[in-house]
Structures are given as structure tokens and as C-alpha cells.
């Protein structure tokens, strides 16, 4: 299979610090898995908002930034039309180069729509990877209907439809009558991450990282953190927000949450620090439109280094994760309604006992293994 290549099309968010690198997303694990399976990976990375930094394209991790007049990114309708044009152009160029051996993976409906239409004319293999779904993505009803139509069309027109969660797979089967494959947003399993780093003896270390999309998510997060801190356990809490670090510091001070620190970590530092912790935390806004359908990337960061975790009940989880009891699911709408059970879960002996199950599941759902299996059916 080494003579083949894959084009991955996605939208990205640029790092606000350097303005050039893109934040890690589902496309990262997909491209790394493609390369590990002996393929060449090419990418088209379109900015989610505007064209201030342009877009990126080329061989994976050797992409160049291509400039687009910034005026094209000022109005959302114009921005989307330019995106559709660029996706169509790159698909045709890629197909012309690799012909029938072409494989194109699109990671959102806007990226996939032109590729799905082009398949009526050009023969190639199309994969649609749906990493989230939101019934309220747009406040504009026309855009929302167009978004849902694109998702439905792409799910049906692709040779393979991949979904990031079991709930999303069930939804598409019921709503679209389409078959999807469960492809969790999991990185390549790397045993060196947990073998090389020794955990210290600071009692129980809890880690949360990421961003809060809504005010409610941030409020719920701090409510949970505050209640965990009051369980009379020897617990040290670390919060690693990707932005608003000063606001996090202020809230910790105002709420008088003890043994809690705010960290500023790069992607590499985040994974290394998680490996030194005992338990992870993932809290989401239950009223946000996509919460029911997501399976967060961070839970695979946790499990990949043997760290069980606490998570919002409404979030979709693999049956294997639920059965292994490596996740403590909060009550409805992030309520901590059973402190006795939570304390038992956070017992150091229990956390240590869950390490093996975490690692086994992470190894089972290694992205390279999952994609290799699906490509054997595709090619």
C-alpha cells in the first residue's frame, strides 16, 4: 500500500500565540495514522474564520501557507464560497495526479460537499469523517439547514462514513438510513509516554485542559472542581486552559479553591504532564448543541497514559469505556449528586487499578490500527 497517497481536507484554528501553527485536531491523528500505515499524506487546511493567515496545503507537516485576499474572509457567505472553490480545485488537482488510486478524506461537511459532488464525474474513494454534529451550529436557519443537508449528502455519498462517537453513528443510521464506522478521535498509542515518565507522590493529581466554549461550561467546570476539592482527599488540581488563564486564576482565588494551580502548556507538554497525573477531568455544557454527539480527544490523551477520568454524563462514550468503569460519569447536567461514589472512584488504589484497562482500550483503538482496518475494506 506504500505507493498510495491520501488527501486530507479539514478546517483548522490557528494558534493565537504564533499565528502560524494550527491547533491539534482530529486531522492530526488521521494524518499521523495514514503515514504510519505507509501512505503519503497531503493536506488542505482551511482556516475556520477569515483569511487573516491564509490557508495551508502540501505534504503533511511540510505544508506551505497560501495567501488569500483578506476581503474574501470578512463575510461568512463569501468565505464559505471561497472554501468550496478551494476544496473543489484541490480535489480535481489531486485526482488528476493520482487518478483511480485517489483517496480523499474530508473532516467536516463544508470540506466534503464539493468532494461528494465531484464524485458524480470523477472515480475516486471518498471518506467523510464527521467529528461532531450540532443541531444549533448556526443561528441563521438557512445556514443550519444547508449544514444538515450537507452532512446528510456527504454521509450517503461517501464510500465510507466515519463518525467520532457511537451516538452519532446511531443518529445517522436512524435519521439518514446510512451506515457509519466508529472512528474515535484517538491518537496513535505510544507506550513511551507512560513508561518514560514517573508519577510523583503528591497525593492524587487531577488534570483538566482545553477551552470553555460557553460561559455555562466554565461555570460547571468550576462547580465540579470546587466540590472535588472539598471531598477531604489528598488531591491536587491542575487546570491547563488554552486561553483566559488570568480569568482562571481569578476564579480560583474568588472561590477559594485550595490546592489548585493554573498551567500554561504546549501540546507536547500537555501530554507529558497528563502522564504524571492520576485522574483526568472533562466537563462540557450539556445545553450546547453538539455535546450529545462528541467523544472528546482529551479522554484518549488520558487513557493513552493509563489515567481514568471524570466526565459529563451526556457525552457519548464507547461501550468498552463504560464497561471497564474507567470513567466516572457525573450526574445530570454535571451535578455531583453522589459524593460517596465519587470519593470511592478517586481513591488512589482504585485509580491505580484502572490503569491497565485504560491502556488496553487505548491500544485497541489506536488510530493507525482503526484506519488500517477500514482501508482494507476501502481499497
List keywords for this structure.
379 residues; Rossmann fold; 2 domains; eight-stranded mixed beta sheet; six-stranded parallel beta sheet; 15 helices; globular
Query: Main beta sheet, described?
Result: 8 strands, mixed
Beta content comes to 15-25%
H-E order: EHEEEHEHEHEHEHEHEHEHEHEHEHHHH
**Which homologous superfamily in CATH is the superfamily of the largest domain?**
Glycogen Phosphorylase B
CATH architecture of the largest domain: 3-Layer(aba) Sandwich
Overall mean pLDDT score?
91
The CATH topology of the largest domain, please? Answer: Rossmann fold
The global form is globular
CATH class of the largest domain: Alpha Beta
Give the fraction of residues assigned to helices.
Answer: 40-55%
Poorly predicted regions are: none
**End-to-end Cα distance:** 9 Å
- Total domains: 2
Order of adjacent strands in the largest pleated sheet:
4-3-2-1-5-6-7-8
* Count of DSSP H/I helices: 15
Number of strands: 14
Q: Structural class, judged by helices and strands?
A: alpha/beta
Gyration radius, rounded? 21 Å
Overall description:
The chain is 41% helix and 18% strand. It is of the alpha/beta class and 379 residues long. It has two domains: 5-183, Glycogen Phosphorylase B (Rossmann fold), CATH 3.40.50; 192-364, Rossmann fold. The strands form two sheets. It has an eight-stranded mixed sheet with strand order 4-3-2-1-5-6-7-8, sandwiched between helices. Strands 11-10-9-12-13-14 form a six-stranded parallel sheet, sandwiched between helices. Strand 5, helix 3 (109-118) and strand 6 form a beta-alpha-beta unit. The longest helix has 23 residues, at 76-98. The N and C termini lie close together (9 Å).
